[in-house]
Records
---
Amino acid sequence: MIESLEADRPGTLARLAALGFRHVEPFALGLWNTPPDELEAAARALRADLDEVGLGVSSVHIAVPADSQASAIEIRASSVRTAPSC
Protein backbone atom coordinates (compact mmCIF):
# COMPACT_ATOMS: atom_id res chain seq x y z
CA MET A 1 0.00 0.00 0.00
CA ILE A 2 2.78 2.45 0.87
CA GLU A 3 4.38 1.94 -2.54
CA SER A 4 1.02 2.60 -4.22
CA LEU A 5 0.55 5.80 -2.23
CA GLU A 6 4.03 7.01 -3.11
CA ALA A 7 3.56 6.22 -6.80
CA ASP A 8 0.02 7.60 -7.19
CA ARG A 9 -1.64 8.94 -4.06
CA PRO A 10 -4.78 10.31 -5.77
CA GLY A 11 -5.27 7.07 -7.70
CA THR A 12 -4.71 4.90 -4.64
CA LEU A 13 -7.17 6.93 -2.58
CA ALA A 14 -9.71 6.69 -5.41
CA ARG A 15 -9.30 2.90 -5.43
CA LEU A 16 -9.87 2.75 -1.66
CA ALA A 17 -13.03 4.83 -2.03
CA ALA A 18 -14.23 2.59 -4.87
CA LEU A 19 -13.74 -0.43 -2.61
CA GLY A 20 -16.13 1.14 -0.12
CA PHE A 21 -13.78 2.67 2.41
CA ARG A 22 -15.21 5.85 3.92
CA HIS A 23 -12.33 6.89 6.21
CA VAL A 24 -8.56 6.51 6.30
CA GLU A 25 -6.01 6.98 9.05
CA PRO A 26 -2.97 8.83 7.63
CA PHE A 27 0.46 8.33 9.11
CA ALA A 28 3.94 9.75 8.57
CA LEU A 29 2.87 13.19 7.35
CA GLY A 30 6.14 14.43 8.76
CA LEU A 31 9.06 13.47 10.93
CA TRP A 32 9.72 15.05 14.30
CA ASN A 33 11.96 17.61 12.63
CA THR A 34 9.67 18.51 9.72
CA PRO A 35 9.25 22.30 9.66
CA PRO A 36 5.70 23.38 10.53
CA ASP A 37 5.14 25.00 7.13
CA GLU A 38 6.05 21.75 5.34
CA LEU A 39 3.83 19.76 7.69
CA GLU A 40 0.96 22.13 6.99
CA ALA A 41 1.51 21.91 3.23
CA ALA A 42 1.55 18.10 3.37
CA ALA A 43 -1.64 18.03 5.45
CA ARG A 44 -3.45 20.44 3.12
CA ALA A 45 -2.39 18.48 0.02
CA LEU A 46 -3.61 15.26 1.59
CA ARG A 47 -6.90 16.90 2.61
CA ALA A 48 -7.42 18.02 -1.01
CA ASP A 49 -6.76 14.50 -2.32
CA LEU A 50 -9.13 13.00 0.26
CA ASP A 51 -11.86 15.54 -0.51
CA GLU A 52 -11.55 14.78 -4.21
CA VAL A 53 -12.60 11.15 -3.64
CA GLY A 54 -14.91 11.71 -0.68
CA LEU A 55 -12.80 10.06 2.01
CA GLY A 56 -12.77 11.23 5.61
CA VAL A 57 -10.06 10.94 8.26
CA SER A 58 -10.64 8.98 11.45
CA SER A 59 -7.40 10.09 13.11
CA VAL A 60 -3.79 10.86 12.17
CA HIS A 61 -0.37 9.84 13.37
CA ILE A 62 2.27 12.55 13.23
CA ALA A 63 5.43 13.28 15.14
CA VAL A 64 5.40 16.79 16.54
CA PRO A 65 8.16 18.29 18.66
CA ALA A 66 7.02 20.00 21.85
CA ASP A 67 7.81 23.47 20.53
CA SER A 68 5.61 22.94 17.45
CA GLN A 69 2.43 21.61 19.03
CA ALA A 70 0.57 24.86 18.41
CA SER A 71 1.18 24.46 14.66
CA ALA A 72 -0.18 20.92 14.68
CA ILE A 73 -3.29 22.07 16.51
CA GLU A 74 -3.78 24.88 13.98
CA ILE A 75 -3.43 22.40 11.09
CA ARG A 76 -5.98 20.09 12.67
CA ALA A 77 -8.42 22.90 13.41
CA SER A 78 -8.17 24.30 9.89
CA SER A 79 -8.77 20.94 8.22
CA VAL A 80 -11.64 19.60 10.33
CA ARG A 81 -14.86 18.85 8.56
CA THR A 82 -17.82 17.08 9.97
CA ALA A 83 -18.25 13.46 8.91
CA PRO A 84 -21.74 12.33 7.97
CA SER A 85 -23.57 10.28 10.58
CA CYS A 86 -23.41 6.52 10.23
---
Amino acid sequence: MKSRTPPSPSDMNDRMMREAGSVIHRRLEIMAEAVCDPAGADLTELALMSDEKLAAFQAVSERATAGAGVVAGRVADAWAVETDAASRAMEQVMTAPDAAQAAVIQTQWALGCWTRATERALTLNADWARMQTYVLAPVHSTVSANARRLKTKEKR
Protein backbone atom coordinates (compact mmCIF):
# COMPACT_ATOMS: atom_id res chain seq x y z
CA MET A 1 0.00 0.00 0.00
CA LYS A 2 1.34 3.39 -1.00
CA SER A 3 1.79 5.83 1.89
CA ARG A 4 0.04 9.13 1.45
CA THR A 5 2.02 12.32 2.01
CA PRO A 6 0.06 14.73 4.19
CA PRO A 7 -0.89 17.97 2.46
CA SER A 8 1.21 21.03 3.18
CA PRO A 9 -0.34 23.88 5.18
CA SER A 10 -0.48 25.87 1.95
CA ASP A 11 -2.35 23.09 0.12
CA MET A 12 -4.76 22.68 3.04
CA ASN A 13 -5.45 26.41 3.14
CA ASP A 14 -5.96 26.52 -0.62
CA ARG A 15 -8.46 23.65 -0.46
CA MET A 16 -10.21 25.17 2.55
CA MET A 17 -10.60 28.53 0.80
CA ARG A 18 -12.00 26.91 -2.37
CA GLU A 19 -14.45 24.82 -0.31
CA ALA A 20 -15.38 27.87 1.78
CA GLY A 21 -16.26 29.70 -1.43
CA SER A 22 -18.65 26.94 -2.47
CA VAL A 23 -20.17 26.79 1.03
CA ILE A 24 -20.69 30.57 1.11
CA HIS A 25 -22.20 30.49 -2.38
CA ARG A 26 -24.67 27.73 -1.49
CA ARG A 27 -25.58 29.26 1.86
CA LEU A 28 -26.28 32.63 0.23
CA GLU A 29 -28.64 30.79 -2.10
CA ILE A 30 -30.31 29.15 0.92
CA MET A 31 -30.73 32.57 2.58
CA ALA A 32 -32.16 34.06 -0.61
CA GLU A 33 -34.59 31.13 -0.89
CA ALA A 34 -35.62 31.73 2.75
CA VAL A 35 -36.34 35.39 2.02
CA CYS A 36 -38.43 34.47 -1.03
CA ASP A 37 -40.25 31.59 0.68
CA PRO A 38 -40.02 31.83 4.50
CA ALA A 39 -42.35 28.85 4.98
CA GLY A 40 -40.07 26.64 2.88
CA ALA A 41 -36.83 27.87 4.45
CA ASP A 42 -34.18 25.31 5.35
CA LEU A 43 -34.21 26.19 9.05
CA THR A 44 -31.80 23.41 9.94
CA GLU A 45 -29.15 24.71 7.57
CA LEU A 46 -29.78 28.32 8.62
CA ALA A 47 -29.27 27.36 12.29
CA LEU A 48 -26.09 25.41 11.49
CA MET A 49 -24.48 28.48 9.96
CA SER A 50 -23.83 30.04 13.36
CA ASP A 51 -23.48 26.93 15.52
CA GLU A 52 -20.83 25.34 13.32
CA LYS A 53 -18.78 28.52 13.15
CA LEU A 54 -18.88 28.97 16.91
CA ALA A 55 -17.82 25.37 17.55
CA ALA A 56 -15.03 25.47 14.96
CA PHE A 57 -13.61 28.78 16.13
CA GLN A 58 -13.82 27.77 19.78
CA ALA A 59 -11.71 24.72 18.91
CA VAL A 60 -9.31 26.97 16.98
CA SER A 61 -9.00 29.26 19.98
CA GLU A 62 -8.28 26.36 22.33
CA ARG A 63 -5.69 24.90 19.97
CA ALA A 64 -4.03 28.27 19.38
CA THR A 65 -3.79 28.91 23.11
CA ALA A 66 -2.29 25.47 23.73
CA GLY A 67 0.17 25.90 20.85
CA ALA A 68 1.21 29.36 22.00
CA GLY A 69 1.82 27.92 25.45
CA VAL A 70 4.15 25.29 24.00
CA VAL A 71 6.06 27.90 22.01
CA ALA A 72 6.26 30.23 25.04
CA GLY A 73 7.64 27.33 27.08
CA ARG A 74 10.33 26.69 24.49
CA VAL A 75 11.27 30.37 24.42
CA ALA A 76 11.46 30.44 28.22
CA ASP A 77 13.67 27.32 28.18
CA ALA A 78 15.95 28.94 25.60
CA TRP A 79 16.13 32.11 27.70
CA ALA A 80 17.21 30.06 30.73
CA VAL A 81 19.86 28.18 28.71
CA GLU A 82 21.27 31.38 27.21
CA THR A 83 21.25 33.25 30.51
CA ASP A 84 23.17 30.38 32.11
CA ALA A 85 25.63 30.18 29.19
CA ALA A 86 26.24 33.95 29.28
CA SER A 87 26.75 33.85 33.05
CA ARG A 88 29.28 31.00 32.80
CA ALA A 89 31.09 32.74 29.93
CA MET A 90 31.28 36.00 31.90
CA GLU A 91 32.74 34.16 34.90
CA GLN A 92 35.37 32.59 32.65
CA VAL A 93 36.14 35.92 30.96
CA MET A 94 36.57 37.64 34.34
CA THR A 95 38.96 34.93 35.56
CA ALA A 96 40.88 34.51 32.31
CA PRO A 97 44.65 34.80 32.70
CA ASP A 98 44.94 37.42 29.95
CA ALA A 99 42.96 39.47 27.43
CA ALA A 100 43.64 37.04 24.56
CA GLN A 101 42.18 34.12 26.52
CA ALA A 102 39.19 36.31 27.51
CA ALA A 103 38.61 37.10 23.83
CA VAL A 104 38.72 33.38 22.93
CA ILE A 105 36.18 32.58 25.66
CA GLN A 106 33.91 35.40 24.53
CA THR A 107 34.16 34.31 20.88
CA GLN A 108 33.36 30.70 21.78
CA TRP A 109 30.33 31.85 23.75
CA ALA A 110 29.13 34.09 20.88
CA LEU A 111 29.52 31.33 18.27
CA GLY A 112 27.67 28.88 20.50
CA CYS A 113 24.90 31.41 21.08
CA TRP A 114 24.51 32.12 17.35
CA THR A 115 24.49 28.40 16.54
CA ARG A 116 21.83 27.67 19.16
CA ALA A 117 19.79 30.68 18.03
CA THR A 118 19.86 29.45 14.42
CA GLU A 119 18.83 25.94 15.47
CA ARG A 120 16.00 27.35 17.59
CA ALA A 121 14.80 29.62 14.79
CA LEU A 122 14.58 26.66 12.39
CA THR A 123 12.77 24.57 15.00
CA LEU A 124 10.33 27.37 15.84
CA ASN A 125 9.59 27.97 12.15
CA ALA A 126 8.77 24.27 11.71
CA ASP A 127 6.68 24.37 14.90
CA TRP A 128 4.72 27.37 13.63
CA ALA A 129 4.01 25.62 10.31
CA ARG A 130 2.79 22.48 12.11
CA MET A 131 0.80 24.60 14.54
CA GLN A 132 -0.93 26.41 11.68
CA THR A 133 -2.18 23.09 10.33
CA TYR A 134 -3.14 21.87 13.82
CA VAL A 135 -4.91 25.10 14.79
CA LEU A 136 -6.91 25.40 11.57
CA ALA A 137 -7.88 21.71 11.43
CA PRO A 138 -11.32 22.26 13.07
CA VAL A 139 -12.20 24.96 10.53
CA HIS A 140 -10.83 22.88 7.67
CA SER A 141 -12.83 19.80 8.66
CA THR A 142 -16.01 21.85 9.22
CA VAL A 143 -15.68 23.58 5.85
CA SER A 144 -14.97 20.26 4.10
CA ALA A 145 -17.98 18.60 5.75
CA ASN A 146 -20.20 21.56 4.85
CA ALA A 147 -19.01 21.51 1.24
CA ARG A 148 -19.83 17.79 0.94
CA ARG A 149 -23.19 18.14 2.71
CA LEU A 150 -24.29 21.19 0.74
CA LYS A 151 -23.20 19.61 -2.55
CA THR A 152 -25.34 16.58 -1.67
CA LYS A 153 -28.31 18.79 -0.71
CA GLU A 154 -27.97 20.71 -3.96
CA LYS A 155 -28.30 17.47 -5.99
CA ARG A 156 -31.62 16.51 -4.34
---
Amino acid sequence: MILNAVLFGHGSHEAAWRSPGMRATAPLELSHWLSCARKAEAAGFDGLFLGDILCLQDRPEHHPSETLDPLMVLAALAGATDRLTLIGTASTSFNHPLHLARRFHKPHHAAGALGRDQSGAGAAKSVQYDLATAGA
Protein backbone atom coordinates (compact mmCIF):
# COMPACT_ATOMS: atom_id res chain seq x y z
CA MET A 1 0.00 0.00 0.00
CA ILE A 2 1.22 3.50 -0.84
CA LEU A 3 0.20 6.29 1.51
CA ASN A 4 0.25 9.94 0.47
CA ALA A 5 -0.33 12.85 2.81
CA VAL A 6 -2.70 15.45 1.35
CA LEU A 7 -1.86 18.67 3.14
CA PHE A 8 -3.98 21.72 3.72
CA GLY A 9 -2.66 24.81 5.51
CA HIS A 10 -4.05 24.22 8.98
CA GLY A 11 -5.85 20.99 8.24
CA SER A 12 -9.37 20.21 7.11
CA HIS A 13 -11.26 21.86 9.95
CA GLU A 14 -11.99 25.51 9.24
CA ALA A 15 -11.32 26.55 12.83
CA ALA A 16 -8.00 24.70 13.20
CA TRP A 17 -6.10 27.96 12.78
CA ARG A 18 -7.68 29.14 16.04
CA SER A 19 -6.21 26.27 18.08
CA PRO A 20 -4.01 27.26 21.03
CA GLY A 21 -0.43 27.66 19.93
CA MET A 22 -1.30 27.82 16.22
CA ARG A 23 -0.30 30.92 14.30
CA ALA A 24 -2.92 32.09 11.80
CA THR A 25 -0.17 32.90 9.28
CA ALA A 26 1.70 29.58 9.64
CA PRO A 27 0.71 28.25 6.17
CA LEU A 28 2.29 31.35 4.63
CA GLU A 29 5.69 30.38 6.07
CA LEU A 30 8.01 27.79 4.55
CA SER A 31 8.93 26.51 8.02
CA HIS A 32 5.33 25.27 8.47
CA TRP A 33 5.49 23.15 5.32
CA LEU A 34 8.97 21.86 6.16
CA SER A 35 7.68 20.71 9.54
CA CYS A 36 4.66 19.01 7.96
CA ALA A 37 6.83 17.22 5.38
CA ARG A 38 9.32 16.01 7.97
CA LYS A 39 6.50 14.71 10.18
CA ALA A 40 4.86 12.92 7.22
CA GLU A 41 8.16 11.30 6.27
CA ALA A 42 8.90 10.26 9.86
CA ALA A 43 5.40 8.76 10.13
CA GLY A 44 6.08 6.53 7.11
CA PHE A 45 4.11 8.30 4.39
CA ASP A 46 5.33 7.61 0.85
CA GLY A 47 4.32 10.91 -0.69
CA LEU A 48 3.08 14.40 -0.04
CA PHE A 49 0.46 16.27 -2.11
CA LEU A 50 -0.09 20.03 -2.25
CA GLY A 51 -2.91 21.45 -4.37
CA ASP A 52 -2.96 24.96 -5.78
CA ILE A 53 -5.67 27.22 -4.33
CA LEU A 54 -6.37 30.33 -6.40
CA CYS A 55 -9.37 31.68 -4.55
CA LEU A 56 -10.63 32.50 -1.10
CA GLN A 57 -12.03 29.55 0.77
CA ASP A 58 -15.71 29.36 1.66
CA ARG A 59 -16.41 31.70 4.55
CA PRO A 60 -12.98 33.43 4.58
CA GLU A 61 -13.78 35.01 7.94
CA HIS A 62 -13.50 31.52 9.44
CA HIS A 63 -10.87 30.01 7.14
CA PRO A 64 -7.99 32.29 6.13
CA SER A 65 -6.39 31.98 2.71
CA GLU A 66 -3.36 29.70 2.48
CA THR A 67 -1.96 30.53 -0.90
CA LEU A 68 1.71 29.75 -1.32
CA ASP A 69 2.66 28.37 -4.72
CA PRO A 70 2.70 24.59 -4.17
CA LEU A 71 5.38 23.99 -6.78
CA MET A 72 7.81 26.38 -5.12
CA VAL A 73 7.07 24.80 -1.73
CA LEU A 74 7.64 21.32 -3.18
CA ALA A 75 10.98 22.42 -4.64
CA ALA A 76 12.05 23.52 -1.16
CA LEU A 77 10.74 20.29 0.41
CA ALA A 78 12.83 18.22 -2.03
CA GLY A 79 15.95 19.38 -0.21
CA ALA A 80 14.49 18.81 3.26
CA THR A 81 13.19 15.25 2.87
CA ASP A 82 14.88 11.99 1.91
CA ARG A 83 12.32 9.76 0.23
CA LEU A 84 8.91 11.43 -0.11
CA THR A 85 7.36 11.52 -3.56
CA LEU A 86 6.37 15.16 -4.00
CA ILE A 87 3.15 15.88 -5.90
CA GLY A 88 1.51 19.21 -6.73
CA THR A 89 -1.09 20.82 -8.95
CA ALA A 90 -1.36 24.11 -10.78
CA SER A 91 -4.17 25.79 -12.69
CA THR A 92 -4.27 25.74 -16.49
CA SER A 93 -6.80 28.59 -16.34
CA PHE A 94 -4.23 31.07 -15.05
CA ASN A 95 -0.94 29.71 -16.43
CA HIS A 96 0.39 29.29 -19.95
CA PRO A 97 1.29 25.63 -20.67
CA LEU A 98 4.95 26.50 -21.28
CA HIS A 99 5.21 28.27 -17.93
CA LEU A 100 3.50 25.36 -16.19
CA ALA A 101 5.92 22.89 -17.75
CA ARG A 102 8.87 24.93 -16.49
CA ARG A 103 7.37 25.23 -13.01
CA PHE A 104 6.57 21.50 -12.80
CA HIS A 105 10.11 20.68 -13.83
CA LYS A 106 11.70 22.54 -10.88
CA PRO A 107 10.57 20.21 -8.05
CA HIS A 108 11.29 17.19 -10.28
CA HIS A 109 14.77 18.53 -11.07
CA ALA A 110 15.44 19.29 -7.39
CA ALA A 111 14.39 15.77 -6.36
CA GLY A 112 16.49 14.24 -9.15
CA ALA A 113 19.55 16.21 -8.10
CA LEU A 114 19.17 14.59 -4.69
CA GLY A 115 19.10 11.10 -6.17
CA ARG A 116 15.32 10.69 -6.23
CA ASP A 117 13.34 10.22 -9.40
CA GLN A 118 9.94 10.48 -7.78
CA SER A 119 7.78 13.51 -8.29
CA GLY A 120 4.30 14.03 -9.63
CA ALA A 121 2.39 16.83 -11.24
CA GLY A 122 -1.16 17.59 -12.23
CA ALA A 123 -2.77 20.41 -14.14
CA ALA A 124 -6.38 21.33 -13.53
CA LYS A 125 -8.77 23.95 -14.83
CA SER A 126 -9.85 26.45 -12.19
CA VAL A 127 -13.57 27.00 -11.67
CA GLN A 128 -14.84 30.55 -11.29
CA TYR A 129 -17.45 31.07 -8.59
CA ASP A 130 -20.30 33.24 -9.86
CA LEU A 131 -21.35 35.61 -7.06
CA ALA A 132 -24.35 36.86 -9.04
CA THR A 133 -26.01 33.45 -9.13
CA ALA A 134 -25.06 32.78 -5.51
CA GLY A 135 -27.20 35.68 -4.31
CA ALA A 136 -24.32 37.93 -3.26
---
Amino acid sequence: MTSKDTAAADLHDKLTDKVLSAHLTTLGLTGRGGAPVSPSTLRRYLPVFRIYAVWNEHLEGHGVAPDEFVLAKLLAERGIVGQCNAVYTPGKLAPFVEDFPRRRAALAADQMLSDA
Protein backbone atom coordinates (compact mmCIF):
# COMPACT_ATOMS: atom_id res chain seq x y z
CA MET A 1 0.00 0.00 0.00
CA THR A 2 1.42 3.39 -0.97
CA SER A 3 1.46 6.41 1.32
CA LYS A 4 -1.35 7.89 -0.81
CA ASP A 5 -3.42 4.73 -0.25
CA THR A 6 -2.69 4.85 3.47
CA ALA A 7 -3.76 8.50 3.67
CA ALA A 8 -6.97 7.73 1.79
CA ALA A 9 -7.67 4.76 4.06
CA ASP A 10 -7.12 6.93 7.14
CA LEU A 11 -9.53 9.54 5.77
CA HIS A 12 -12.19 6.92 5.14
CA ASP A 13 -11.70 5.33 8.56
CA LYS A 14 -11.85 8.64 10.44
CA LEU A 15 -14.39 10.53 8.37
CA THR A 16 -17.08 12.14 10.50
CA ASP A 17 -20.46 13.57 9.62
CA LYS A 18 -19.21 17.12 10.27
CA VAL A 19 -16.11 16.68 8.09
CA LEU A 20 -18.21 15.22 5.29
CA SER A 21 -20.71 18.09 5.52
CA ALA A 22 -17.90 20.65 5.22
CA HIS A 23 -16.31 18.74 2.33
CA LEU A 24 -19.58 18.56 0.42
CA THR A 25 -20.07 22.29 0.91
CA THR A 26 -16.64 22.98 -0.64
CA LEU A 27 -17.77 20.90 -3.62
CA GLY A 28 -20.90 23.04 -3.94
CA LEU A 29 -23.24 20.34 -2.65
CA THR A 30 -25.55 21.97 -0.13
CA GLY A 31 -28.83 21.36 1.58
CA ARG A 32 -31.98 23.40 1.55
CA GLY A 33 -31.51 27.10 0.95
CA GLY A 34 -27.81 26.67 0.19
CA ALA A 35 -26.93 25.77 3.77
CA PRO A 36 -24.45 22.94 4.42
CA VAL A 37 -25.99 19.47 4.45
CA SER A 38 -26.84 18.67 8.05
CA PRO A 39 -24.31 16.30 9.66
CA SER A 40 -27.22 14.37 11.19
CA THR A 41 -28.54 13.72 7.67
CA LEU A 42 -25.18 12.30 6.58
CA ARG A 43 -24.56 10.19 9.66
CA ARG A 44 -26.53 7.19 8.41
CA TYR A 45 -24.42 6.95 5.25
CA LEU A 46 -21.00 6.82 6.91
CA PRO A 47 -20.96 3.11 7.79
CA VAL A 48 -21.76 2.08 4.21
CA PHE A 49 -19.24 4.61 2.91
CA ARG A 50 -16.50 3.07 5.05
CA ILE A 51 -17.40 -0.44 3.94
CA TYR A 52 -17.45 0.60 0.28
CA ALA A 53 -14.12 2.42 0.61
CA VAL A 54 -12.42 -0.71 1.96
CA TRP A 55 -14.09 -2.89 -0.70
CA ASN A 56 -13.04 -0.55 -3.50
CA GLU A 57 -9.49 -0.16 -2.17
CA HIS A 58 -9.08 -3.95 -2.18
CA LEU A 59 -10.49 -4.19 -5.69
CA GLU A 60 -8.10 -1.54 -7.01
CA GLY A 61 -5.12 -2.98 -5.16
CA HIS A 62 -5.67 -6.64 -5.99
CA GLY A 63 -7.66 -6.56 -9.22
CA VAL A 64 -10.45 -8.62 -7.71
CA ALA A 65 -13.34 -7.60 -5.48
CA PRO A 66 -13.30 -9.10 -2.01
CA ASP A 67 -16.11 -11.43 -1.08
CA GLU A 68 -18.01 -10.87 2.15
CA PHE A 69 -15.62 -13.09 4.13
CA VAL A 70 -12.50 -11.21 3.01
CA LEU A 71 -14.28 -7.89 3.49
CA ALA A 72 -15.28 -8.83 7.06
CA LYS A 73 -11.64 -9.61 7.80
CA LEU A 74 -10.41 -6.35 6.25
CA LEU A 75 -12.92 -4.30 8.24
CA ALA A 76 -12.00 -6.08 11.48
CA GLU A 77 -8.29 -5.48 10.84
CA ARG A 78 -9.02 -1.75 10.55
CA GLY A 79 -11.28 -1.68 13.56
CA ILE A 80 -14.28 -0.65 11.48
CA VAL A 81 -17.37 -1.81 13.32
CA GLY A 82 -21.10 -1.31 13.12
CA GLN A 83 -23.59 0.00 15.63
CA CYS A 84 -22.80 -0.70 19.27
CA ASN A 85 -19.28 -1.73 18.19
CA ALA A 86 -20.61 -4.91 16.59
CA VAL A 87 -18.20 -6.63 14.21
CA TYR A 88 -19.44 -6.86 10.63
CA THR A 89 -20.25 -10.46 9.74
CA PRO A 90 -20.17 -11.97 6.24
CA GLY A 91 -23.95 -12.32 6.41
CA LYS A 92 -24.38 -8.61 7.14
CA LEU A 93 -21.93 -7.68 4.36
CA ALA A 94 -23.36 -9.94 1.62
CA PRO A 95 -25.98 -7.41 0.38
CA PHE A 96 -23.34 -4.68 0.19
CA VAL A 97 -20.89 -6.89 -1.69
CA GLU A 98 -23.67 -7.73 -4.14
CA ASP A 99 -24.49 -4.03 -4.72
CA PHE A 100 -21.02 -2.48 -4.77
CA PRO A 101 -20.17 -3.37 -8.41
CA ARG A 102 -23.29 -1.46 -9.50
CA ARG A 103 -22.33 1.48 -7.31
CA ARG A 104 -18.77 1.47 -8.65
CA ALA A 105 -20.04 1.45 -12.25
CA ALA A 106 -22.40 4.34 -11.52
CA LEU A 107 -19.60 6.35 -9.93
CA ALA A 108 -17.29 5.63 -12.87
CA ALA A 109 -19.96 6.73 -15.35
CA ASP A 110 -20.56 9.91 -13.38
CA GLN A 111 -16.82 10.62 -13.30
CA MET A 112 -16.58 10.12 -17.07
CA LEU A 113 -19.40 12.63 -17.61
CA SER A 114 -17.80 15.20 -15.35
CA ASP A 115 -14.42 14.76 -17.08
CA ALA A 116 -15.94 15.32 -20.53
